[in-house]
Amino acid sequence: MANVRDLKKDINYVLGDIIEAVYVWEYANTDKDTKKSEAIIDEAIETFDMLIAKVNEKNVENKKSHFKSITNELEEKGNALINKINKLG
Fold first, then answer.
1. Where does the pLDDT of residue 3 fall: very low under 50, low under 70, confident under 90, or very high at 90 and above?
2. Can you give the pTM of this predicted structure?
3. From CA 12, how far away is CA 48, in angstroms rounded?
4. What is the distance between the alpha carbons of residues 26 and 1, in angstroms, rounded to a whole number?
């Protein structure tokens, strides 16, 4: 089972990199409207808060499957956010 600290770091790195990618897109496209890109940043922050809250839950029956589901959710939500960044055009 992955260390809880490592899982928190993964969540932070993945969502931090996604936010950074949005900032890079905004910097490269200064002539475009940033409402959609700002919405992606807001969604990444909400996802971060939600996943960290799930990691910090204390009353979990099967910790291994709980943390595995958090890892899978991070991957799914991260891929969805990356797809949104790619569609910003």
1. confident
2. 0.91
3. 7
4. 38
